[in-house]
């Protein structure tokens, strides 16, 4: 059976093609009875407005790719949820791509733009270092979500970044631990040569130590384990086990993601130690699980709703040529729960 | 600047279009020097083989929609990860769509097929009840993942299902609790009128009670709370709080998802009770978090790798017309951890 076209519908209804189009698009400029008649005919003949200009346009260019490094990370889940709502609202389709930790997300993005007519790209969990000029090869608007510009100030507008202010908020968390009397603070984080936000969180930690006159003990800087994905429970568990076996003295563990803190809790518990009596633990992210831990996790809440909405808004503005690149950084909120105790120095 | 075409590349290289095509497709039937020359020219002129037949075909029809009800569910995360790997392997693109709990996923699917040329659809966390014939309106191959056919046997081949055998494995878990001496077993699950897998898990629970001569106590059947999404921590927390306040006697809580069990742990702990000394807890799914709880969660492990791969394989076979619909059910694995204690009846 040949496919029913918009012309057929117009002919059957005895109206013009533009009237059918108005009915399909819920245009106000059409009489309700006419719209109803057209809709009945559309349903009766099973006409799918697939080849109309409206849909052709949409089919070709309403896709927004979301490239996620770490799809099991609940932080990204929450942001994806917000993005999904925003994209749907604007009749765009999310094309989700999982990027492996070893994979080059820019290469994935370039491959995608070759094959798909994308309206835009959103990166979540981006790695900073790519050969110079590599990002500039991406010819559609894109936003780097959850990672701020590496230089860390508002003038970094080479690309569009939307993220929590990782350096500043990591500084604040470390400073909080110091104010609670902790000086030997272990950090589960990236190495300095890391190319994720871990680098910024580590820098914030080091700066807070420095500003408080504490020399960093490199043995308390525990880089991501090679077990499990960075920022995961498994990784935090392995890193904390390593820390506990090192024989180094420490009174607090600052895990640079809540999921790593979940792993740290387990390792500390299995070593026969109590949180916060023996060891204090702080996290970063503010994902739901923190409140389900015993004791509840003190952490830095990322404003995921705001971040998700801003990522979309920035991409949307770029698509419409309404703005240049921006480095949009948000404050977190330090949630004081039960996992950090005050150390009294006698 | 007019776009460079494959014809331009052929002309510049002094070869035929088919030779350029062979070079692009890494066809063995081309001399390496020729391939290298062509690749140099392609790079030099920035030719993107976007309009070649190969890519046109790919652009139009390599999309597979994955419709997920409950994107924050770590079980689905793991399956999405497997699907992503399989789809990439076969040069298909995942179009992920989040479906809200109130939303009709079939309507979402139909909307998608209107707008996109999809090769297939995968549903995760499907709800059973849709008006008769509604699913038949979907004109591309589709697989209902993580939900078995409601009639529960292999002859249910109206649609393609790939799932753990929810009824059987829920029966097995309940039976395990009974063998451990528990008779007053509360279940956090769906109501009988539920239209998700919760219905099957509840049926397995009821059947196990019946086969062991235990009359079900309807006060111990705690339906999903209206707080938070079904199967979530928040929901399990609220449901368990309700159960604890009910004054009913029970020695075990069977949470029909591990995330609900995480919530149950918190509610039990906050009531000043101990797991498993005061109350035993069992879960379902076998997601990673179970091993990070204190005590470790006894649960039913779903074979997510196998389920993910089978969902893809079934869809792929349907796409290629190689098979009819199937109801593919998998066994789970009962993981005996630390959250269930043996009750000794004196």
Overview of the structural elements:
Two copies of one chain form a homodimer. Chain A is an alpha/beta fold. Chain A folds into three domains: 6-57, 434 Repressor (Amino-terminal Domain), CATH 1.10.260; 60-165 and 303-331, 3-Layer(aba) Sandwich (Rossmann fold), CATH 3.40.50; 167-302, Response regulator (Rossmann fold, 3-Layer(aba) Sandwich). Chain A is built from eleven helices and twelve strands. Chain A has helices spanning 6-13, 17-24, 32-44, 53-61, 74-89, 105-115, 166-179, 198-211, 233-245, 258-270, 304-319; strands at 63-69, 93-99, 118-124, 142-145, 161-164, 185-189, 221-223, 252-255, 280-282, 299-301, 327-330, 333-335. In chain A, strand 8, helix 10 and strand 9 (280-282) form a beta-alpha-beta unit.
Mean pLDDT of chain A: 87
What do we call the CATH homologous superfamily of the largest domain in chain A?
Response regulator
- Using the alpha-carbon principal axes, give the shape of chain A: elongated
> Would you identify the CATH architecture of the largest domain in chain A?
3-Layer(aba) Sandwich
CATH topology value of the largest domain in chain A: Rossmann fold
| SSE sequence of chain A, one letter per element | HHHHEHEHEEEHEHEHEHEEHEE
How many whole angstroms does the radius of gyration of chain A measure?
26 Å
Distance between the termini of chain A: 89 Å
CATH class of the largest domain in chain A: Alpha Beta
Strand content of chain A: 15-25%
For the record, the count of structural domains of chain A works out to: 3
Main beta-sheet strand count, sense and barrel state of chain A? 6 strands, parallel
Number of helices of chain A: 11
The unreliable regions of chain A are: 50-60
Share in helix of chain A: 25-40%
Number of DSSP strand runs of chain A:
12
What is the oligomer described by this structure?
homodimer
Q: Order of strands across the biggest sheet of chain A?
A: 2-1-3-4-5-11
Q: What is the SS-derived class of chain A?
A: alpha/beta
Q: Biggest protein-protein interface?
A: A-B, 41 and 41 residues
